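Before we proceed, please read the two lines closing this message. Let me know whether the structure tokens fit the sequence:

…
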Amino acid sequence: MKSGLETVTDLHQDIESEYKGETAPRSRWAVIALTMLHPPLGYLYVGKGRAAAISAAFFLIYLAIFIGAWSLLKFFPFWPGLVFIAGWELMAVMCLVGLLRDVELQQGREYLLRGFNHPVVYTLVFLLAAFVPVYGAYHLSTQALWGIVQVNDDSMYPALESGDVLLVDRAAFWSRAPARGEMVVLRVDDEGAERNHVRLGRIIAQEGDEVLFEGTAVWVNGEPLQQWVYMNDADVAGTPVYIERNAGRSYLIAGQATPPPDASVEPIRVKESQLLIIGDNRGHAMSERLFWTAERAQVLGKPIYLLYSNVPRGEDGGTAVRFERSGLKIR
């Protein structure tokens, strides 16, 4: 017959052998919220650490494929962005179906909490597996693949207007040199220029070319660039708009009906590794001398889409966003 002390000791040992850790039921709503936020979180919540790691790795691959495909295809970012989000949310829904089934099977049984079933762990996983990759991809791509530039004057009218915000393809000239007739974004190296200051312009000529300006007309290597009247724009004091063709590329320019008397200059010979740049608002460029030479190394990229426009908003000095020009492709 066991003594009272032995009985208590045996009972304590039985309790210790049965206790495996804290338990808590799995909430269906918590599974839905965590999975739709980021599928790896849903897998962690129900105790599937390996599945969480696999889904996190898949997200990184999915993100890399999206950035690579968009950089090659160069669609307007609105639709590719929607496709990316919709595709990932579709995957989240597919994962959620299986996770809800697991929760249903666990009904009536206590779920043994793992070490990763903690709000701090969920937060860290979301930061490391979702926020950091997305932010890192955005930061790196804006430094190397594309950028955003705002137009602050009318030097590129009629293609662009002051307040337009442009998407710039930084990789446009990785495999080839900038060509005549292309609009480019250039880094400004002038003394006193603001840090990261950029300028927009169109390449009129390249190294070795001889250029002569006569009013709104441009001569390259002794031949005038072809121009056709496109329209008279009543919004800019009747300034005529022309179609100009340069090295096989056509684009719109704005010229003055009566060029200023000093709008002609001596012929310019473009030096080695340089480009001759001018604005599309040709009459304005002629009168203000807004043409200049730039080194090829100053070219940061090629504007490809107009994202949206900022327009003045009454007398308060603010601006309002205008989306009706959003998505226009820039020539």
